[in-house]
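Please, structure for the following, as tokens.
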Amino acid sequence: MRTIFLFLLAAALLLSGCSTTPPPQTASQPTFKPVGDVLQIMQGMVIPAADVVWKVPAEAPKNDEEWAAVQHSALILAESGNLLMIGDRAKDQDAWMKASQALVDAGTAAFRGAEAKNVEALMMAGDAIYNACEGCHMKYPPQTGKPQ
């Protein structure tokens, strides 16, 4: 009987530590405060950064500083995909999230290509960036932002 009691007590203690309730937010924790909307992120971050990556096959960087600029642009693309999945920017939990994740993946590939100073990898990543953008724009036209 004592063994059963100890077993149940141990099980109860283990289960109490598996709570899925997030800890309450305290005053010291910052809150997410979006500044730009989707269109502003596209115009201010995604388009200029994609242009830098797309330019590489035609005009490869000549020095470490230029390669660093390509890396920075690729990083902006990857992180922009993450920003598009946060809060009210996420239009839905299906196609929008997949397209945003595709941008994260393509931006990451471009970052790695720039890090390796590999023009061919950047050309392939540039294609993936284009496909991610076009795939999203087919479902969510930039003029309306609403699914078709």
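Confidence is low (pLDDT under 50) at residues 5-9. The chain has five helices and no strands.
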